[in-house]
Design brief:
This protein is α/β, with parallel strands linked by helices. It contains 19 helices and twelve strands. The N terminus is likely disordered.
């Protein structure tokens, strides 16, 4: 199946590329016009040179009047040709960069609506490589195609017309030998695409590996894994070098091959022209023009063969970008109902079943009724389904069977925006964007006033450390918090939720990186914030959930125990074992 895809892939990719180029058809027409005019003038110059040669009949027999007029024409034609080529290149650059911009925009828009399942199953660096590196490689090949392919094709057609008009017999020699050059170029080009595709895939793998190592360098150094990573990187680098060398080797055969054929054509034309000149069938100056046309006729074949090689690389990169763009998006929200801005917070799970991998079940037959304003704690061993349950509540993943309802509405029948607007979420893994402290806090409520932002920061106990920063709330932080400590970053995430105060909360180890003293204060703030709000609390430290209304004990995707802290301890089951083991270890 993969082989058939590779065979049919190039025509399909070309259709997609032409679709994007079609949006700039007026610029494309302008580029073709400039190419045609510049080639016409370029071909006119050899004809003028031929006439100039014929003005020099011999010693003392030079027609200076006619020669000076021809030289002026040559100079004017050369200047106009240079101007037209500059305009054509400017238009070609405009088309290329606009097309690449459109493709990148569409690729990024697709990333925004891809199912989380796709993002989780692909290395982030590999996705980045498609949008950045592959799009750049595609743009380079497309620009070369515009710059040389159009002028090359027009040059071939123009020179052929001029040669036929000068001497049809000699022109026939050129035409008959042309297929040899085309055969050589095609033979090599068909073997380079596979190599460029492997090169592009391996480059994406390398980008993903580098991204992973840079992001987790502390872990690498902490566990002394530098040598193993160097070996892994060397292995990827060796493969990339091998594929790149093969692609370059095959592509480098194109130019010498076509040049050899072109030299054969030139020699054949020179011989045929010399015989015709001896017989008086052609003037020496016109023969010089004809030989010049032969050079101009064969030169584009070299250029086009080089362009074809670059286009093979461009198409291989384009295939990877288009594969991302054509990934099935998550199910559409169009036509779905909107949850009201103030929901009561009643949540029910009805025989919910879910698994990340089709053959490996995780959650089966999960039933749960949560009343408005209840504080529900979720505990259990690693891999029991706690985070998965949160993903399902937020509809990052859709259930395989059953239903999840908020205020009686199936969450698959309401828009994701209205559902997620109803939740405030603080995770153990913090996320901050590149911007000011103020921007990060106000992310969920961009129109918040300064007083509201400061009040939220004070409620989350972030105000004191923010004021100590160089520019206070105007301090610009780098991606993911920059130099802020993990605890400070978590306080900002908590402030973000406290600013919005949605009707439902999800707290997944929300205070895991905060010192004990600040945690006690945050717990008081959370307790105040959770009043009247349905709250789901994922906790590993069981001492933090004693006051929960309901504690759900999960194991292997099932709720095996349910009740208050006191009830579960009295029951002496799995929860009691977990709770007692924590305190015995401490």
């Amino acid at each position: 199946m993969r082989n058939s895809h590779q065979k049919n892939g190039q025509p399909a990719t070309w259709q997609k590329v032409l679709h994007y180029i079609g949006a700039y058809k007026y610029l494309l027409a302008l580029s073709i016009l400039f190419a045609g005019l510049s080639v016409a003038l370029t071909l006119y110059i050899p004809l003028l040179i031929g006439h100039a040669i014929d003005c020099i009949l011999g010693p003392g027999q030079v027609d200076f009047a006619a020669l000076s007029g021809i030289m002026v024409k040559i100079a004017v034609a050369a200047v106009i040709t240079a101007l037209l080529q500059w305009l054509m290149n400017t238009v070609n650059n405009k088309i290329t960069f606009e097309v690449v911009r459109d493709i990148r925009d569409e690729a990024f828009q697709k990333i925004e609506i891809l199912p989380l399942r796709y993002i989780d199953s692909h290395a982030y660096g590999e996705i980045v490589s498609r949008v950045i590196s592959d799009a750049d490689q595609f743009g380079d090949g497309l620009l070369m195609g515009f710059t040389q392919l159009f002028t090359g094709v027009v040059t071939i057609l123009g020179t052929l017309i001029f040669m036929l008009s000068i001497h049809a017999g000699i022109a026939a020699v050129v035409v008959l030998m042309t297929p040899i050059s085309l055969f050589v170029a095609r033979f090599i080009a068909t073997r380079t695409h596979a190599m460029f595709r492997l090169q592009s895939e391996t480059r994406g793998e390398q980008t993903a590996f580098i991204d992973e190592m840079v992001n987790h360098q502390k872990v690498v150094q902490a566990f002394g894994h530098e040598d193993e990573n160097l070996e892994a990187f060397d292995e990827i680098n060796r493969r990339l070098s091998k594929y790149s060398l093969r692609a370059t080797f095959f592509s480098s055969l194109t130019n010498p091959g076509t040049r050899f054929v072109n030299n054969m054509v030139y020699a054949a034309v020179a011989l045929a022209g010399a015989l015709a000149a001896i017989g008086g069938g052609i003037m020496p100056g016109i023969l010089a023009s004809f030989l010049s046309y032969v050079n101009q006729y064969t030169k584009p074949f070299n250029e086009i063969s080089g362009v074809i090689t670059e286009l093979q690389n461009a198409l291989a990169c384009a295939e990877r970008v288009f594969a991302l763009i054509e990934e099935p998006p998550r199910s559409a929200d169009a036509g779905l109902a909107e949850l009201p801005e103030s929901v009561s917070g009643a949540v029910s799970l009805e025989n919910v079943a879910f698994s990340y991998v089709p053959d490996v079940s995780l959650i089966e037959g999960l039933c749960l009724e949560v009343q408005p304003g209840q504080r529900v704690a979720i505990v259990g061993p690693t891999g029991c389904g706690k985070t998965t349950l949160i993903n399902l509540l937020m509809r990052f993943y859709d259930v395989n069977a059953g239903a999840i309802r908020v205020d009686g509405a199936d969450i698959r029948e309401v828009t994701r925006h209205s559902l997620r607007r109803s939740y405030g979420m603080v995770l153990q893994e913090t996320w901050l964007k590149n911007g000011t402290i103020r921007d990060n806090i106000a992310m969920g409520k961009p129109d918040a006033s300064e007083e509201e932002i400061v009040a939220a920061a004070k409620a989350s106990h972030a105000h004191s450390f923010i004021k100590r920063l160089s520019d206070g709330y105007d301090t610009v932080i780098a991606e993911d918090g920059g130099s802020l400590s993990q605890g400070q970053k978590q306080l900002l995430c908590i402030a973000r939720v406290m600013l919005c105060l949605p009707p439902m909360l999800i707290l997944d180890e929300a205070t895991s990186s905060i010192d004990t003293r600040t945690e006690l204060k945050i717990q008081d703030a959370f307790a105040e914030m959770m009043k009247g709000r349905t709250s789901f609390i994922v906790a590993h430290r069981l001492s933090t959930i004693r006051d929960a209304d309901v504690i759900l004990v999960m194991k292997d995707g099932h709720i095996i125990e349910q009740g208050s802290h006191t009830q579960l301890l009295e029951k002496g089951g799995f929860y009691a074992t977990l709770y007692n083991s924590q305190f015995s270890l401490s």
